[in-house]
């Protein structure tokens, strides 16, 4: 996989002008969802760089990360004259960059694309590293491809219109990056004033966080080994997210990851001795900011069934990424069904359900 250019922008207009120049193309397309079309596209259009661009707009959020939406994007590209040499700009959160990235990766076997992430989650995580895809058969990201954007342009000014839920959703992936990197970064994240955001300080934290991801992706772009660190909290988190989607009470991805981290830190403590006090502090932060995902013990089998679809699994065993300590990563850890049920008991007890 080619190395991806990730820029923390001082001027989005200048960076976008340069990124477009680096991708010679015959026709330009810009993909938004219904919210980023209204909130983010106008400032980009003011630059004049998109004057000849064809606009494609899709429904917002994960309920639209589907085959039907993907087909609608292929259709718009196909009927509006896209060729193998066209360029797509994805302007939005992780739903837009995942689905738009996959549309670009597959249309005429692959066209160039640029990501301009507009949510915190997409800036620190989704827009970077080349994982693209859609949900399918009730499972998260079941269909997709590794296909990096040519450039990722991060403009943190877009964060000013983000609501608190989506701020905390992205913050969960940042907390994950803290846990898998080093204690100083983890402490900084636990102490950041999330109730009165200093956007200059946030920009710096975003830069640090995306660097954690870039460093790992550079070592292992196709997730054969260390990239599994980026999946901390996701074996359980994706199971929560899939169950919530099936029950038509969708939860934001980052919230599911935060609750998944509660479970997987417990498993880390149990299996590889993650320090109890650091587990307690992390769980307290999550309890204070993310509320609780409720389910009773009758749902354990269904959650277990979702976990059997995790992409890290091999030959019938469920695979977790665990931590011996902050930054001390143990990939390819397995747990049997009884231990997984014990972990779910712990989650319910410590979250007070
Ligand atoms: N590819 C990866 O490596 C990767 C990593 C993490 C998450 N993901 C995926 O990303 C998706 C979640 O991404 P997300 O959290 O960005 O959700 P999202 O894209 O659904 O965006 C959340 C909401 O915020 C709105 N929004 C976007 N930008 C805004 C802005 N600047 N101001 C106000 N509102 C804005 C959107 O329209 C949407 O309603 C999930 O599908 C998840 O699986 C992928
Ligand atoms: O980039 C990665 O690698 C990650 O695992 C990042 C995750 O935060 C992200 O949610 C990713 O989409 C999960 O991928 P999946 O392979 O478990 O579907
Ligand atoms: Zn994630």
Automatic annotation (TrEMBL):
CDD domains: DHQS. Pfam families: DHQ_synthase (PF01761), DHQS_C (PF24621). It comes from the Bacteria. InterPro entries: Dehydroquinate_synthase (IPR050071), DHQ_synth_AroB (IPR016037), DHQ_synth_fam (IPR030963), DHQS/DOIS_N (IPR030960), DHQS_C (IPR056179). PANTHER family: 3-DEHYDROQUINATE SYNTHASE, 3-DEHYDROQUINATE SYNTHASE, CHLOROPLASTIC. Belongs to the sugar phosphate cyclases superfamily. Dehydroquinate synthase family. This is 3-dehydroquinate synthase. It comes from Bacteroides vicugnae. The gene is aroB.
């Amino acid at each position: 996989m080619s190395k991806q250019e990730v820029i923390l922008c001082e001027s989005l207009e200048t960076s976008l002008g340069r990124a477009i120049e680096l991708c010679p193309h015959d026709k330009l397309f810009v993909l938004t969802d219904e919210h980023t079309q209204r909130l983010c596209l106008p400032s980009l259009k003011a630059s004049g760089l998109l004057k000849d661009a064809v606009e494609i707009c899709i429904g917002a959020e994960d309920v639209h990360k589907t085959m039907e939406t993907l087909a609608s994007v292929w259709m718009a590209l196909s009927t509006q004259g896209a060729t193998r040499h066209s360029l797509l700009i994805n302007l939005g959160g992780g739903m837009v960059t995942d689905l738009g990235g996959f549309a670009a990766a597959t249309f005429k076997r692959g066209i160039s694309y640029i990501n301009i992430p507009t949510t915190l989650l997409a800036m620190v995580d989704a827009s970077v590293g080349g994982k693209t895809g859609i949900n399918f058969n009730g499972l998260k990201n079941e269909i997709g491809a590794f296909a990096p954007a040519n450039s990722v342009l991060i403009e943190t000014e877009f964060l000013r219109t983000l609501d608190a839920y989506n701020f905390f959703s992205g913050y969960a992936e940042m907390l994950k990056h803290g846990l898998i990197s080093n204690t100083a970064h983890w402490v900084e994240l636990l102490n950041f004033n999330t109730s009165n955001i200093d956007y200059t300080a946030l920009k710096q934290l975003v830069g640090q966080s995306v660097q954690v991801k870039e460093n790992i992706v550079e070592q292992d772009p196709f997730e054969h080994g260390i990239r599994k660190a980026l999946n901390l909290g996701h074996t359980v988190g994706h199971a929560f997210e899939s169950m919530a989607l099936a029950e038509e009470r969708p939860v934001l991805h980052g919230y599911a990851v935060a609750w998944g981290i509660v479970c997987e830190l417990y498993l880390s403590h149990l299996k590889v001795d993650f320090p109890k006090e650091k587990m307690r502090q992390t769980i307290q932060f999550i309890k204070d900011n993310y509320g609780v995902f409720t389910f009773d013990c009758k749902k354990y089998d269904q959650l277990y069934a979702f976990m059997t679809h995790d992409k890290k699994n091999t030959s019938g065993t469920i695979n977790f990424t665990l931590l011996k300590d902050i930054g001390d990563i143990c990939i390819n850890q397995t747990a049997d069904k009884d231990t997984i049920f014990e972990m779910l008991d712990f989650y319910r007890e410590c979250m007070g359900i």
